[in-house]
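Hi R.,

As promised on Friday, here is the backbone we talked about, encoded as structure tokens. Could you run it through your design pipeline when you get a chance and send me back a sequence?
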């Protein structure tokens, strides 16, 4: 199926892998997707926090018992192509499923880190910290893409979809957030290029808006630029931050219609 002929993502029996599924937006997405996906769909929930993952899985079991879930505690920053491939093969074996058992493969790249926002760009001086940041936020999603779509090829499933959770920071500079901005911009271009290379994969970079999550706590505490830090503090005190559910409410109809241009960067406020 060509990417321009997208079907309702929630109408197909799906193998869905969500990274960063232990809290915040990733947890909300996993739960909402589970509620909407058809019976016999499978959700693989991946993150570093086992307690958070189990909480997500328990909530899915309570609200959407028609789908199966599998919790995978994993630190994506330290993975290789070989380890990720072994992980996916092991999941298929353990769950007694194969890619051909599904009509759709859905990969959600939500896991990400803010990085050090306490320094201006000319103050950043740790190569090891930079390399660790790129490993987590660029290398790991790229390798996971490679492995995931190696198994879920065009001839195996009817539809393939990848969602990259991005940010306004990928297109607009935020003072003292240079590493975060650069990482988000690079990720957007990776997925935009992916869409250009393979029209059989539906690719969306979704910017969920300013959500009231742990990242906002860090932003209010650690941001070096005074004006930006005060902006975040003001958004919290004025109640203008979004909830995860508000953002997902905007995303779900977009995925149901599935008519967005593959590779597009779409913001909560533009939908």
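Update: got your reply. Pasting your designed sequence below so it's all in one thread:
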């Amino acid at each position: 199926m060509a990417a321009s002929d997208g079907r309702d993502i929630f109408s197909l029996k799906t193998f869905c892998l969500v990274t960063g599924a232990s809290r915040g937006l990733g947890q909300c997405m996993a739960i909402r997707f589970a509620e909407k996906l058809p019976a016999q769909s499978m959700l693989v929930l991946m993150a570093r926090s086992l307690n958070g993952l189990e909480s997500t899985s328990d909530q899915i079991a309570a609200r959407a018992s028609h789908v199966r879930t599998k919790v995978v505690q994993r630190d994506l920053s330290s993975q290789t192509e070989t380890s990720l491939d072994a992980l996916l093969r092991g999941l298929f074996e353990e769950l007694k499923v194969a890619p051909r058992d599904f009509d759709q493969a859905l990969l959600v790249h939500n896991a990400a880190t803010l990085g050090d926002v306490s320094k201006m760009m000319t103050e950043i001086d740790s190569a090891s910290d930079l390399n660790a940041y790129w490993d987590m936020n660029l290398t790991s999603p790229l390798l996971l893409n490679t492995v995931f779509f190696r198994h879920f090829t065009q001839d195996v499933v009817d539809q393939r979809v990848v969602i990259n959770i991005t940010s306004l920071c990928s297109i607009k500079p935020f003072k003292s957030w240079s590493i975060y901005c650069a990482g988000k911009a690079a990720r957007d271009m990776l997925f935009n290029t992916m869409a250009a290379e393979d029209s059989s994969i539906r690719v969306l970079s979704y910017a969920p808006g300013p959500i009231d999550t742990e990242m906002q706590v860090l932003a209010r505490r650690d941001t070096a630029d005074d004006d930006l830090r005060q902006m975040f503090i003001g958004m919290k005190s004025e109640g203008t931050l979004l909830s995860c559910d508000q953002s997902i409410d905007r995303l779900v109809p977009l995925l149901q219609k599935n008519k967005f241009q593959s590779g597009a960067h779409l913001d909560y406020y533009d939908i």
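One thing I noticed while checking it: Residues 21 and 30 are 7 Å apart (CA to CA).

Thanks again,
M.
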